[in-house]
Amino acid sequence: xxxxxxxxxxxxxxxxxxxxxxxxxxxxxxxxxxxxxxxxxxxxxxxxxxxxxxxxxxxxxxxxxxxxxxxxxxxxxxxxxxxxxxxxxxxxxxxxxxxxxxxxxxxxxxxxxxxxxxxxxxxxxxxxxxxxxxxxxxxxxxxxxxxxxxxxxxxxxxxxxxxxxxxxxxxxxxxxxxxxxxxxxxxxxxxxxxxxxxxxxxxxxxxxxxxxxxxxxxxxxxxxxxxxxxxxxxxxxxxxxxxxxxxxxxxxxxxxxxxxxxxxxxxxxxxxxxxxxxxxxxxxxxxxxxxxxxxxxxxxxxxxxxxxxxxxxxxxxxxxxxxxxxxxxxxxxxxxxxxxxxxxxxxxxxxxxxxxxxxxxxxxxxxxxxxxxxxxxxxxxxxxxxxxxxxxxxxxxxxxxxxxxxxxxxxxxxxxxxxxxxxxxxxxxxxxxxxxxxxxxxxxxxxxxxxxxxxxxxxxxxxxxxxxxxxxxxxxxxxxxxxxxxxxxxxxxxxxxxxxxxxxxxxxxxxxxxxxxxxxxxxxxxxxxxxxxxxxxxxxxxxxxxxxxxxxxxxxxxxxxxxxxxxxxxxxxxxxxxxxxxxxxxxxxxxxxxxxxxxxxxxxxxxxxxxxxxxxxxxxxxxxxxxxxxxxxxxxxxxxxxxxxxxxxxxxxxxxxxxxxxxxxxxxxxxxxxxxxxxxxxxxxxxxxxxxxxxxxxxxxxxxxxxxxxxxxxxxxxxxxxxxxxxxxxxxxxxxxxxxxxxxxxxxxxxxxxxxxxxxxxxxxxxxxxxxxxxxxxxxxxxxxxxxxxxxxxxxxxxxxxxxxxxxxxxxxxxxx
Length: 817
Hints:
Layout: E1 3-8, H1 14-27, E2 31-37, H2 42-54, E3 58-63, H3 89-92, E4 97-101, E5 105-107, H4 112-115, E6 124-128, E7 135-143, H5 144-149, H6 152-168, H7 177-186, E8 190-192, E9 199-200, H8 204-209, H9 213-216, E10 224-226, H10 243-251, H11 254-261, H12 270-273, E11 276-280, H13 289-295, E12 300-304, H14 311-314, E13 322-325, H15 330-339, E14 342-345, H16 355-361, E15 366-369, E16 380-382, H17 387-400, E17 412-417, H18 426-432, E18 436-441, H19 448-456, E19 460-463, H20 468-477, E20 480-483, H21 491-498, E21 504-507, E22 518-520, H22 525-536, H23 553-563, E23 566-569, H24 572-579, H25 590-600, E24 608-612, H26 624-644, E25 651-652, H27 668-679, E26 683-689, E27 706-712, H28 721-731, E28 736-740, H29 742-754, E29 759-761, H30 765-774, H31 802-807, E30 808-811
Parallel strand pairs: 1-2, 1-4, 2-3, 6-8, 9-10, 11-12, 11-14, 12-13, 14-15, 15-16, 17-18, 17-20, 18-19, 20-21, 21-22, 23-24, 24-25, 26-27, 26-28, 27-30, 28-29
Antiparallel strand pairs: 4-7, 5-10, 6-7
Helix pairs in contact: 1-10, 2-11, 6-7, 23-27, 24-25, 25-29
Protein name: Glycosyl transferase
Organism: Streptococcus pneumoniae
GO molecular function: glycosyltransferase activity; metal ion binding
């Protein structure tokens, strides 16, 4: 018996005492619980004492004298005078270490770790109150031996008499009962415990209104949950954290505690075992709510609000399957959102916050009436006078996990043609649109994945080995085409579909060919869902959104040649850095990322052309592997591009990469000739990484007047940009500057351009030129210098080249970071 616990209460607080004791015994054995009281009947102790003994524990009735000094002392309205009884713990409890617990709390796990804390000669250990200064006296790990030795009871009583007089005379503000006295007497004689040992959830609504973000952000499992303030689970509906758990322990049978310790019973939150719906409202008016509640007694209806609720909603609490959550706080709402099965968009007035978007992201079905539908988030909409139809839909979903009976005879049809079993987000779409018939066709037999889909959803129809005339009939019947086939392109079929002038929806990653599809990110499928919903309602989508304008390689080169422009090229690596990620040869650097964001947002002009990947409009001019890469890249980053790229037009990043990733490689030779004409008969200064060796072993720069080089670190060059720029300025006069230095080249080129120099950022040009010269079909690694996208420069054997060595003016790589 090594855990001694003290509680205090009176006959008006036995329900709360019992709930606290249940929570202690549920999670702990071998405890001795003393209950300080004056008026609790001996009969009340019999049942808890019997259960405690079976768990190697003991419950002791400690009667305090009727005329005790504290009975007339000041206190807060929601606090009993019996709380002052803790002054007398050392008189009645002999153990040297004692845990005092208020009776408006529950224990949430084992207390072993709490009892193992060393008090370090302090009088007690406690958790700070919400003021962040004093300690809260609801949970006190007490050094009872020291209390006796230092006569703490007498000190507390003396201070109480002094303070009470000040309170009575109006000279003491913010008096908080015995908690104030304890803090006055002990001051620095206490050890601070972590918040988990006394999570004060009664202040949740105060924290929300006062933006105490840290208070509500506590995510660890609490050891003790304390229902502070007057907002108790048994006195108010206020939806603070763990309110439902208090009631779970309150309703727990004593026998179930024994069953728990025998491994035969576990407390399971009702949220995890009940079929339930959620509505978040800012209005008392919920369409059809009483009819839904009475027709569906087996369904629990959670109704939440950020504010208090009026009588009209409070009256719904008479129904056993209604749970009201007034003044809800974000952690409780988050838990409800994740736990419920459906969302009912049935409140009048405005939509509350982002609740509909949140539920859509969680893939929870949303049901609404035509008079209460908010926005366009794929709700299943019912007519106002058809509550019974919604009732049947909820019954169907509860029984089968889908809506069926009320949507037979669908008159909206969706067609998908596939060459594989993988249809992107098909389950998500079918589940959210039970009123739509999804027709899936293929020239071949279909595999088990599609067959299982059709078994699971009655609104899915399969057409394996479809005949041409049958497919023509499907095309004429369809209202929308879903281009969501992954792998094995269906571009030719999509091209045929495009001639029908019917809407075609696709994800960037599933798009087959460039045929005028409306494109969406698979990371935000709710956007495609919204478009789908609009079509069902008879709305039109208009033309697909125009992509960011990037002119082609030849057009970019012609513009640069005509205007003697400088160039800055952005690729996927720079986008990763701006997004906050490192890349193989450059760590993420916030200053670099911000510089890149500034440059990419600039308007191109005759002085400086900002270039982006020419992959916004047509990603199907590339080889199959490059097409897959750019589809996935745009799927993730398209929103980011739209946010940052404010220019009316951009040049093509691929001016120095016109060969290996293109399916048609015939244009590359002429484009390289245009590039070479820019530096023909000019003095050039190459700024490059130590492994780049651009032009070594090929004729890329054979027609220049002279070549000089500044050699830089090949990794994390941005950390040396000031040094690099200083070296360039020393030798740049009357020279065309060519930068091949990764992300650092963007900032360097921009800076030098602003100073009046012509600078071309032409990274990867050497590898592309070599591949073109050898007629390569894939990216061949070079043994004697850096190869594009072989980012770790492994196994390079440099060839000693006197011409190359003589061109080096400055070598900054010797002190590479």
